[in-house]
Structure formats: structure tokens, C-alpha cells
Input
Amino acid sequence: MKMTGSQMVCESLIREGVDVIFGLPGGAILPLYQTLPEFPQLRHILVRHEQGAAHAADGYARVTGRPGIAWATSGPGATNLITGIATAQMDSIPMVVVTGQVARAAIGSDAFQETDTTGITLPITKHNYLVMDTEEIPRIIKEAFHIASTGRPGPVLVDIPKDVLQEEAEFEYPDSIDVPGYKPTLEGHPAQIKRAARVIAESERPVILAGHGIIFSGAYDELRELAEKAQIPVITTLLGISSFPDDHVLCVGMPGMHGMAYASKAIEDADLLIALGMRFDDRITGKPSAFAIRSRKIHIDIDPSEIGKNIPVDVPIVGDLKRVLRKLNKMVKPATHLEWIQHIDRLKREHPSMYIRPTDKLLPQFIINQLSKATEGRAVIVTGVGQHQMWAAQHYMFKDPQTFVSSGGSGAMGYEVAGAMGAKVGAPDRVVWSVAGDGGFQMTMAELATMVENRINVKFAIINNSFLGMVRQWQEFFYQKSYVATQYTHNPDFVKLAEAFGMLGLRVSDKTQVMPAIEQAMSYDGPALIDFVVEEEENVYPMIPAGQSIHSLIEEPRPEEVVAR
Amino acid sequence: MMTNGSPPRRTITALVQDKPGVLNRISSMFRRRGFNIASLAVGHSEEADLSRMTFVVEGDDSTVEQMTKHLHKLIDVIRVSDISDQNIVSRELALIKVKSNVQTRSEIMQIVNVFRAHIVDVAPDSLIVEVSGNEDKVDSLHELLKSFGVVEVMRTGTIAINRGAGSRSKRAGRVDWGEASSV
Ligand SMILES: Cc1ncc(C[n+]2csc(CCOP(=O)(O)OP(=O)(O)O)c2C)c(N)n1
Output
């Protein structure tokens, strides 16, 4: 059948199961937009800024596991996507981005709104394409989805010149894929899996480090089976949060820079680390040469280049976690590790990192704790970057898989608004709370308009400390409280702002009002925002300063009686 | 040239798609991750639409292992082999333009003969010498010709191939589990 390039893009997206597109038009991509009415199955959500489209596609992908879709025009439209694409690349989020490009004949001439989009996005995509032939569109879109969503997922960008969108060609959707340079290893080497089982049997003090890979692979049951069968405590990385229930007896929580002291200490005391779909990021290892030096390491990951990249590994296994764990679980011997688990329980008692000090002041930790109770640990929690992100990771008790949505590797402030929008579109039946910083919120808050317009029912908890809080904390700890360029002396009135956007706006500065406000926001039929005016100079504890080891751990100073307990 | 202080060199070959932008993807990855390339040569391979590249890289074992894995991770790269420890033939071609006059010409020709190089162009005040061989040989000739005044040097970078009939893909690289996979 003959079709225009634009029709081919839409038809191909439908064949790949796409239902939602986040985007904003412009000249180069206009032919594609003008074709949309012919494809009513494709819902397009018009954002206010392309960064919002990219983060929303990312948030959508994180809760559904399916590639998120973002569209933008050439030049500034494409460059506005960059933060969102880089965020997706760092956290391995499947995404297919379509950008318009100037017509083929104009490429290289510095034409109006021409940017070398494939050049700019080369290091921040899993792969990208510049389509120079209309009839190649179906093959390229099919490849883009395949590459984005298999192996270690990631964003794929397809840049299409305007005249390629306009031209007609024969449409034929391929039913197979031939990318000879791309064959992810899924099964895991049998001899290595056997070795892993043996090493686990020899271990007296094993811990599992569960990362984002568990979520991509959907290996929740397999992880749980491994942990329970051999009684192995489970530590979850920041992006591994919600891969294992926080209320499980074997859950030890998050380690690292702002992780639970007992989780970091358990890593230090362990004789075996079983690293599953994680990449020994510097926020976890601190100084790599001092990290977990007494333990052997089993590392299972689908990306061979992650193995041995930061930390030497004794048993490397390349493969898909679900498949590898299924085989491993069959070989693992039941064990109890009673002494080791008692040791960790003792660490938990001696280092109560989750402790919230009693005070009449409004503490961010308390707000998260209340939010966790009000939603019974079952909401999707989307965060920005900074102190509030760490408090959300620490104090929310996640019960369901795939419910913690946060920019980990990139640490992109502003993610909390548009990321939450995408998450709610992807999971319309779940309660979605954005735990936002007053700083990050203001970076992308234009998308509130998009949410009101499209009835995307997100609830916002702004942890408003009038500071770029995490940076202020570093200034307090490492620069003698010299608060250079971190204080907002005049933030907007967030309640009025919410009202101006057409949302419910509430303000809470009193501890007793936290729960009632959360309940009111949740019972409101539509997007709502609570401005929590919190303690300005509250710090996130524990903290291991950047590049240091567990021996430099700083814990919250506590009153005598708590220490004595 | 291998001297004591410099990092060890290894020879890596890659079979890649012959498409626009592939070289850019590869060089961008090397730059971004801070890997050092001593030389790089590209040309058509025995298979249509595929090019073969030879990299001479610098780094310790774990760095080179990371390099090969990251090369392999690129979608347009089909096969990567670290052939340093194998029985290989490696060659580089150089064209060296050297100053010469009636007095020095025969002396230069003697040196050129010793190296089994050729003189491919003669001008009144200069000669062009063509030499092929491994990197050390080309370096030595260049060094010797310097005393006459080297005007310009063009080098292709090293290309390398295994001896015997075996194909590269059959001989595992040093990384036993990274060879067949990418993400
Ligand atoms: C786009 C971007 N710019 C700068 C930073 C550096 N940074 C990290 S945390 C932080 C402070 C965030 O402030 P806020 O959003 O109010 O959250 P808080 O730390 O106060 O909870 C900054 C500026 C960043 N992560 N992202």
C-alpha cells in the first residue's frame, strides 16, 4: 500500500502497540502532526515544553515497562528534549523519540531550525537514526522499538527530514528484524551459574544487592525465591527500590551515600555480594578501592560492559535476570544464616537510620512517613532530585513492584513534575504522588497546565524548604555553612499558583495538618498540590561524603535517651 | 614504539557496518570514555557492506577489556576481537618525503634498500620513500631519515590479520563471556 512517510510513522507506531505520544509540533514535524487525525488510536498529549514530553515518556515507560514516545520538531524542539533523553539513557529507560528535521536538500546548510540532532544525541541514546529514505521508515521504527525495549533498554531517537515525511512510498511492515550487531545474551553461562550456586553455598554472610535490572526483567518472584530459599538479606539500590517489598523481613533497604547505615554496614561485613542488575554506581561504592573488600562478588547483568567496570567480580554472569535466577534458584541450597541475620538485626538496632526525632516542627521525613501510611505503601511515588528524593527513598514503605519513579543516574531536577505526568498516564488506576522539591518543581511546573487540560490526576507534595536543599546541605557540611546561591528568598505562592492552573492548592505548616491535607488532596477529583512548608535546614542522614568509605559515615546526632535504648 | 614507561599496546579488530556515521559513533565512544587510540585504520572487508577496522590501543588489561566491550555494545559493530596474543601479521604503510641533493641521494637509497623500502618519486631537492612493515620498522626508518631533513610523513596506521586459515570470529578474544553479546 502506498503511504506518506507521516502515515508510515503512525501506522508503525500502532503496530508496535503505542497508545500515547507526548509532544509539541513545529515546522519540520508538522506533516507528521497533520496526519494524526487519521489515526484516532494514537492519543497525543500536547506538553508545554519538550523536556516535559521526554520526562513524561520516561515516566510512562517506568511504570508500564513499555517504550514511552516523545515527538518534537527540529532545532530547539529537539534540543529541549536533551535532558529527558540523557535521563532515560542513564537509567536505561526504553523510549522511542521522533524528531522532525529540515528537508534533505537543506541538511548541512545551517537552514532555519537545523541542528545535528543525531550528532548531539549520539552519546545519550542507545542508538539513533537519520532517515534518508521514506520506504525505510517501517524497518527503522521496528528496529527502534526492538533496540529500545530489549537487552539493556534505552532511548532510541529517529530523526526524519520533513520531505521524507511528505513523500509517498510503498508501506510494508517487516515481520522480522535483522540487526547483526545486536544480539543480547539472555541465558547466562551454565557453568558460571553453577559456580554461583556453589559460592552461595560456601558463604556465611551473603547479601543480595537488587538493582533496576530486577524491575526491567520482571524478576520479582525469582528474587524473592532466592532470598527466601537461602535466607539472604536483600539490599535495594536507589532504582532497585520496589523490586523487593520494603516490609519483607529480609529487606535491609538502600545503601550508599544516603542509604541506611545498617545496609552499608551489612555490605561491609558480608562475605559475599550477589549483585543483580545493578552497576556499582559511585553513590553506592564511594571509594571503589575501599568498597566491600572482604567479600566475594557474583555479578549478574545483561550488559557485559557493566561487569568489572567499577568493581572486580569473582563470578560474572551475563544474561537476563529472570532466566538466570530461575536456573540459579534450582541449584541454590536452602540455608538459614541465622547468626548473620541476627547480626544485621543488631546493626538495625544500633543504627536506627529510619528514626524520626520527636518534635513539633514540620519535618520532611514525617511527611513521607504519613504519605506512606495514607497510601498504605501502594502509591506510585515520583520524585525530583535532592533531599526530598532521599527522604522519599528512605521513608516510604514500598509494597508493590515498579512504584518508585526517580531520576537516579542523571539526577535531573524537574523530573518530579513531568515524570509524574507520564507515570499517571501509564498507570491511570494507581494513585500517583509526586514528592517534589520547591527547586525542581519550578523547573518544569508549566506541565501542570498539561495535566489539568488532560485530566491527569497527579497529587503533588512540595517539600518546600526555600532552599536548593541538598546543595545547601553540602555547603553546611563541607563549606562552613556558606550558603552561596542556594536560598530562594521569594518563592511564588504555590497555593495560588495551583489555583491559577486550575488545581486544588493546600498549604501545611503544622504537623497536625499533614494527614488531613493528604486525605483532602486524595479525595479531590483532579490534580492537587500541597505546599508543605518544612524545616528549612533539615539534613538528610546518614551520609557518606562523596568518594569516601563506610568509615566516614555521618549519622544523625541524637538525644541521649535514644542512643541508650 | 614500546618503551618501558608507556602503557602496553594491544591490537583490536572490529567488523562494522559500512554506514554513514559509524566512525563518528566509535570515535565518540572512545573520546567519551577516555580510551586512548594509538592508531586506527579502516577499509572494506571481504563481506559487502561491512568494513574492518584495526585499532592499536593503549591501556592495561582491564581498560582494554572495557574498550572491547563498549565497542561491541555499539549497534553498528558486529564483531570485536582482541588479537594481540595471537599469531598475527601486522603492517603499516608510510610515505616519507625527505630532502635530498646530489650528495645525499645515494646514501638515502642505501638506507631505503636496507629497509626494503622504495623510492616512488624523485624531485631535484626531495625524494618520496614508501615503506611498509610493522610500526617499529616504520619508526626506525623515519628516525634514520630525520638527519637528511624529513619534510612530510603520511602513515596509514596499523592493519593486522591472523596467520593461517582460521576466521577471526572462531578465535575467542581474551574476554570469554563478552564476545558474543551486546546490549
Ligand atoms: C537540573 C539540575 N540542576 C542542578 C542540580 C544540582 N542539584 C542537586 S540537588 C539540588 C537541590 C534541589 O533542590 P530542591 O528541588 O528544592 O530539592 P531539595 O534538595 O531542597 O529537597 C541541586 C541544585 C541537579 N541535580 N539538576
